[in-house]
Design goal:
The structure is a homodimer.
Chain A (H helix, E strand, L loop, with lengths): L1 E5 L23 E3 L2 E6 L1 H11 L6 E6 L3 H8 L3 E5 L5 H16 L6 E6 L2 E3 L2 H15 L4 E6 L10 E7 L4 E7 L4 H9 L3 E10 H5 L11 H6 L9 H4 L7 E6 L3 E3 L3 H7 L4 E2 L2 E3 L7 E4 L5 E4 L4 E6 L2 E6 L6 H5 L8 E4 L2 E11 L2 E10 L7 E3 L3 E9 L1 E6 L2 E6 L3 E4 L5 E5 L3 E10 L7 E4 L11
Parallel strand pairs in A: 1-4, 1-6, 4-5, 8-12, 14-16, 15-17, 16-18
Antiparallel strand pairs in A: 2-3, 6-11, 7-13, 8-11, 9-10, 9-11, 10-12, 18-19, 20-21, 21-22, 22-29, 23-30, 24-27, 24-29, 25-26, 25-28
Chain lengths: 452, 452
């Protein structure tokens, strides 16, 4: 039995900690299951649980390229199916199954469970996964789903309405997306279950759909031609059209930590970072990632989150809506985790057309930028740590701590870290932001170099 | 009749907007009295009111050297008695009266009113000042005080207990510092008045105290020998020992905007800076000086203040205590207003003994730094605006936009802005902060220069 963890982007439901380039599943504020004194991220917690359930050896993660470095740093050497670009869950499932078949030698008859990377759950969830596999292996069921037994008429989850029953599982009658409160109450009377987003099936049953798109179950082939798969969700393309769907009820702890109010309930500490709270605060959580203090006084049932992207201060009952409020914020993310390192934008100032931007950039050892130039800005770099090779207009230059270099607009350049390399980049130019980049090549060996 | 506005430092009652180097009286969030659509600072509002009362021509401000540039930028050409260092209010009053005598030609018989720079009040307050002067001129009263008629038994103010009454004024019986609620109620039953911190007297009556310290009423002399005056408050040294004290009641609007709850009541806007509030917020004020958004959701009766020094989130009933909570914060102020310009610390990172600090520095046109060196840090400067002359080890260098220069530890340097000059300063060194500065001279003409 294989496991695929789908690691999506989290969007803005946990703004300001999650953004387009940083996902909530990597933020460390949960307690470790087997050591409540230490802190871990959602993805670390799930992998710990899979290991306890002896499922980790056959687990892979499907994630975008931008998440690979983060996954490796949090989980070590894990198998990752890399999405070349974001194309929704149907292509991601196809890519993952192809990875299992062509990289791990899975056979068409092998069973796989697809699950989100960030369920907040307990050990019996993983026992239930094995029941799903059992149902797929031993009944006429094509796809088995997991349905959590509701503990309240929640309006936040989708529901699965079961039909005829069997021992341990039931046919799926229909799906209902997030209902209003009255409808949720009616659904619970019909024994409807919360849709946990878990699907279990035989790998061959899904991979045989590839031929319709002119593809075969070869991971590298699909990776190269990923845009031949339609941008559509697995639920819509597969589940809604399937005949033999079953649901297995799960009666344990299951939560979607997709809002601040839900997350606060499970947080390891009521405060993280540089935080001062007076004695008048009650049921208030503070997360501070900035290097200036947050002082909280006399607040009840509030959540405060401060990051380089912004500051949220909300009553816990009101914060579930943060995604809608912040959709109008179109700032460049101030903190970005990239494949090759991190970018922290620490100051932006604008006067008329003129813009000055100060960024702190870290490049991991051995990583390099593309060979590129900018049309509308000069850059001045100051090295604060490590060593790197800079190629500028084809000439090589060694950058070391304390050194500074000026790169004018139009000058082609690329940089490669000889060891972990940190520098401050000052942009002097016209408003253009990250769009002002003209890439010539990503291939370091193809960058022209003299004086080496 | 002369007016002296005493401009003290505000300490931390309005943290994080006020700090040791930045005072609340300069922050612009009040409505202008004669134009409610525009915003002004406390000191601008008082000067507007003095002008309306035709008192501005004979008004001077007593302030520390660090506040002079700010006063000039907010008020234009105003007379300022400059405190060489902070020595409490008794020396400040002596210095101010000497300024009136030796710079403005005031005679010993002329009357002066000493008042704080930041009363939040209305036009009739200034009419009452004239009544104080009248009492000093035409009765046996040596010093006349202003007492506001209490509107509630406040525990935040000092009280003046009046004795025998005259038409329009009363003898002062005694003072009571901030009482508890019950005592405040008892004081009000005795017709006690709030101490507005206003004293009115004949200039000569106070200046004749100078001889006790070996000084004469000469401003320049006192400026040079300011440390010969004792570090003591005017209240303690003069008022508490005086025989002929009177108090004139004032029956109008008078508030000390010395807490966030008091200040919010008078703020021009409920939000300033980059702020998003949802419809669930009520009676909530947000001040954001950062360039990232503050999102406020579902909060009632709260105040949120975000600055480079920190973030305060408080229930309005709880925030009066902020001074006590933040006394444990011993960070270098992140934003500093200096005589010669401003310093904004935008990033500090520490790894072991190694510290990297990034600061944005503005130097006003014509201003210069001292000639100095650092023992424990190298600096790399990048010019983002303007032109300056840098003297480094006696050699002159012109700095222009886009230029970068490296200054090693031990290298003596000084800089003078030829036009408004902005640069990014990166410190690479060991933990030392602002203490690591060895000044050789402040006198630009004494800095050794070659190649000019």
């Amino acid at each position: 039995m294989y496991i695929v963890l789908l690691s999506g982007g989290s969007g803005k439901r946990l703004w300001p900690l999650s953004n387009d380039l940083r996902s909530k599943q990597y933020i460390k504020f949960l307690s470790r299951e087997n050591d409540s004194s230490s802190v871990c991220s959602m993805v670390q917690r799930v992998m710990d649980q899979l290991q306890t359930a002896q499922l980790s050896q056959t687990t892979i993660i499907c994630a975008s390229a931008g998440q690979v470095e983060m996954l490796r740093s949090q989980l070590g050497n894990v198998n990752i199916a890399i999405e070349p670009d974001r194309r929704d869950t149907f292509p991601a499932v196809m890519l993952s199954c192809a990875y299992l078949a062509s990289k791990l030698g899975a056979s068409p008859e092998d069973v796989v469970c697809i699950l989100p990377v960030d369920p907040y759950t307990e050990g019996s969830y993983f026992t239930t996964l094995k029941q799903l596999a059992h149902v797929v292996e031993h009944t006429e069921t094509e796809i088995a789903l997991m349905g959590a037994v509701p503990t309240c008429p929640s309006t936040k989850y989708g529901y699965i309405v079961p039909g005829a029953g069997h021992k341990g599982y039931r046919k799926v009658n229909c799906f209902k997306e997030k209902p209003d409160m009255r409808y949720a109450q009616a659904l619970i009377k019909q024994n409807a279950l919360w849709n946990c987003g878990v699907s279990c099936f035989k790998i061959g049953n899904i991979l045989n759909r590839l031929s319709a798109y002119g593809l075969t179950p070869d991971y590298d082939l699909i990776y190269q031609h990923y845009d031949m798969l339609p941008k559509i969700s697995f639920d819509y393309e597969v589940l809604e059209k399937a005949d033999n769907l079953s649901v297995v009820p799960f009666n344990g702890l299951w939560k979607d930590l997709g809002s601040w109010s839900a997350l606060c309930e499970e947080m390891h500490d009521i405060a993280s970072g540089y935080v001062l709270m007076d004695k008048g605060c009650r049921d208030t959580h503070v997360i501070n990632e900035l290097n200036i203090p947050v002082v909280s006084m006399g607040l009840k049932d509030a959540v405060i989150v401060a990051s380089f992207d912004g500051i949220l201060v909300a009553d816990k009952d009101a914060c579930d809506n943060v995604k809608n409020i912040v959709q109008d914020i179109h700032l460049q993310p101030m903190y970005e985790e990239r494949r090759w390192g991190t970018i922290k934008t620490i100051d932006v100032s604008q006067s008329g057309e003129k813009q000055t931007v100060i960024r702190k950039i870290t490049i991991f050892q051995g990583m390099n930028s593309s060979y590129h130039y900018h049309n509308n800005r000069d850059e001045i770099w100051t090295v604060t740590q490590g060593r790197a090779e800079l190629i500028i207009e084809g000439s090589s230059l060694l950058l070391e701590m304390g050194g500074a270099v000026s790169i004018k607009r139009g000058q082609k350049h690329a940089v490669k870290a000889l060891e972990e390399f940190e520098y401050v980049e000052i942009h002097l130019g016209e408003t253009a932001g990250d769009q002002d980049i003209n890439r010539l090549t990503f291939d370091w060996d193809a960058v022209p170099k003299t004086m080496l």
